[in-house]
Amino acid sequence: MAEFDAATNQTSYKDRLLEYFAQAEALHLNFLHGNVSRLNWALAHGIAAAHAYKVYSDSAFLTYAEKAWKSGTDFTLNEENLQSGTIPFKNVTIKATCGALPMAGGTFWNTNSSNAYVNTLATASYLLASALLAESTKDDKYRDAAMKTETFYFDLLRNARGDLLDGIQGDVCSNSDASYPANDGLMMEGLAVLASVTQNETIAEHFFDVLERTILNSNWHSANGIINVSTAQASAEHVGQYVVRGLTAFYNRNTTPSELRTYIRGYLGVQYNAVLDNARELGDDVYGASWTGPPFSTFSLDNQTNALTALVAAIPLHNDPIIAQDPTPSSPTDDSTGNPNIGAIAGGVVGGLAFLALLVTLILHLVRRRQQKQFQNLQALDEVIQTNPVVQVSEKISRINRERKFYQVHPRIPQSPPTPVAQDSATSTRSSTQFLSDSGTTRFGSVPTEVLVTLLNNRLQPEQWREDEVPPEYATASAPTQVHSSM
Fold first, then answer.
1. Any long-range contacts for 443-450 (C-beta under 8 Å, 24+ apart)?
2. In the Cβ-directed half-sphere of 225, how many Cα atoms lie within 13 Å?
3. Which residues span the membrane (predicted)?
């Protein structure tokens, strides 16, 4: 709602959001849900409140964001915890280091006192909440917290190929080998915000690494480029919102024309068209879970939120005149002739938000009634993945410049996955240049920009806001990798 107001330059939902946050905190102190709460749930309130504070500049939203962030901080490892061997709220022994790398900065999956699992969903949520607060308040404590968590993610939440994993058992240092796009999307959003805040080029490189592994993963997309994860994974069809938000965070913070920005614009356009064409009946405001279809006539809060994320993300794209720097047939058409009316998009979002607002109000009312009837242990449903999906990572993506150094002095457009190397600690000195500055002579690695752009444009043609748009093509995976789900 706040992001819709920001995109349409209004404050229509401010009062309603203030009401929702007040009710949510009254139901769950500090936004922790019940006796056992997943930390990403609490931090989701902080992320939403931080976004609202940025849009409305109302200190009430900042207060809510800080309370949720404090809940996340209580379950995020720090040096004092690791040195003393004691962790508040936890009855587990956590390794101070794993593979000689410090565990500080990781966030526990849930509040269960005997659970030692530090997972990516919670850690990425804490990184994002910290980065957003650092962006809005300029307070170094949020920046420092985000930097420490960023170091933890890069050191301990990736495998030897650099793929983002689901988490690590802090008591035995064993990684889960599962990989999920929701994790990557959340991490992308946090890295995009943090790179913008710090102007730190190393963090920008890490963002690009996650970006390329996400949008070029054929197993997370349909054959025609629509986000479409195997439904064997619980809630898999609701991950699109995280990927969209991660890309939007970069797009909205980097307005300088660039080939990468144009590519992201086209990618988001593919998802927008998919939601309108495949996830709903024509003229309906109820959206299904899958963006590849078929439509779903029964209203679902999860489905609606997932779809509205893609629709809201499209509003800045239609307001933005940026197109490819070289006029080609694959460039987007002029907004006045080739793009749908921005009012139509906003109207569709308003319709969806109306349903969403009514449902949220009803849910809050029902929860209050349940509490009044002495149901004191109200808990949100904890979806546990019980299947073991096969995740295949594409190995056929642009094998250019295999030997290039991982850290470069310029940003890059997605190409072949880099070889991971150990990251400097959060307190070490890192290069700090203008984040993602572009020029006609910029090179990504040692490969000329125009070569990489050509490779990407081959996957995205023609980039037009039309029903007959052809989305990006994705390489097929070379070999399957069996993983075990624990998200």
1. 443/410, 444/408, 444/410, 444/411, 444/412, 444/413, 444/415, 445/401, 445/404, 445/405, 445/408, 445/412, 445/415, 446/401, 446/404, 447/400, 447/401, 447/404, 447/415, 449/259, 449/413
2. 25
3. 342-367
Higher pLDDT, 179 or 385: 179
* Predicted pLDDT of residue 247: 98
Confidence of residue 35 (pLDDT cuts 50, 70, 90): confident
Q: What would the mean pLDDT of 285-303 be, rounded to a whole number? A: 90
CA distances from 440 to 199, 252, 258, 437, 449 (A): 21, 21, 9, 11, 8
Map residue 119 onto helix, strand or coil.
Answer: strand
Coil, helix or strand at residue 437: coil
Lowest mean pLDDT among 28-37, 103-112, 136-145: 28-37
Residue 176: phi and psi, rounded to 5, are -85, 130
Mean pLDDT estimate for the chain: 74
CA–CA gap between residue 224 and residue 220 (Å, rounded): 11
- Element spanning 269, H or E: helix 259-278
Residue 184 has pLDDT above 70, yes or no: yes
Interior angle at CA 279, CA 273 and CA 283, nearest 5: 85
For residue 432 the two structure tokens come to: 């700090």
Would you give the distance in Å from CA 83 to the centre of its chain? Answer: 32
The two structure tokens encoding residue 122: 């919670």
Question: pLDDT, tens digit, for every residue of 333-342?
Answer: 333 333 444 4
Paired tokens of 297: 């006539």
Distance between CA 183 and CA 206 in Å, rounded?
Answer: 14
Other C-beta atoms within 10 Å of 285: how many? 20
Instruction: Give the pLDDT confidence score for residue 367 in this predicted structure.
Output: 38
Q: How far is CA 6 from CA 51, 313, 314, in A?
A: 10, 11, 13
Q: How many CA atoms lie within 13 A of 348 on its CB side?
A: 27
Residue 32 one-letter amino acid: L
pTM tops 0.85, yes or no: no
Q: Return the half-sphere exposure (C-beta side, CA atoms, 13 A cut-off) of residue 23.
A: 17
Angle, to 10 degrees, between the axis of helix 181-198 and the axis of helix 240-253? 20
Q: What is the pLDDT of residue 319?
A: 64
Residues sharing a CB contact under 8 Å with residue 468, sequence separation 6 or more, in sequence order: none
CA distance 256 to 249: 14
Quote the tokens at residue 9. Answer: 């330059």
CA-wise closest residue to 469 among 352, 336, 340, 343: 340
Q: What is the pLDDT of residue 316?
A: 87
Rounded CA separation 114/35 (Å): 13
